């Protein structure tokens, strides 16, 4: 996907540098890591995104589902857990490169 296109010789040094840089590999979908125990799914995903990995963890006797989605370049994770109160407000936090949004839907904190 092209975000910005420049046609100009002044950027040649930048493209030469980018071509020499060792970049991390793109995240590849690994179907064998998905669990058949997933009981929910995202109602909407951005175009090009698909489920890469689903896991369940237990933290303080609470089951937390996590689903990792990617388009091969960008990733995001949805975490779902039971919540004791539906009165929790929706929250947004930003810490460095991470943005976290949380809300309660149908008795689940997402």
From TrEMBL:
Any one GO molecular-function label of the UniProt entry: antisigma factor binding
Positions of transmembrane segments: none
Domain MucB/RseB C-terminal: residue ranges: 36-110
Taxonomic superkingdom: Bacteria
Pfam families membership: MucB_RseB_C
A GO biological-process term: regulation of polysaccharide biosynthetic process
One cellular component term from this protein's GO annotations in UniProt: outer membrane-bounded periplasmic space
Name by which UniProt lists this protein: Sigma-E factor regulatory protein RseB-like protein
Record organism: Haemophilus influenzae HK1212
């Amino acid at each position: 996907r092209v975000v910005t296109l420049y046609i100009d010789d002044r950027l040649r040094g930048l493209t030469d540098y980018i071509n020499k840089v060792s970049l991390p590999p793109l995240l590849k979908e690994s179907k064998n890591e998905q669990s058949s125990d997933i009981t929910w799914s995202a109602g909407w995903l951005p175009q090009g995104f698909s489920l890469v990995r689903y896991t369940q963890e237990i933290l303080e006797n609470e089951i937390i589902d996590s689903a990792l989605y990617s388009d091969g370049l960008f990733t995001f994770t949805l975490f779902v857990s039971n919540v004791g109160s539906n009165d929790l407000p929706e929250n947004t936090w930003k810490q460095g490169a991470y943005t976290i949004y949380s809300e309660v839907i149908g008795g689940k904190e997402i």
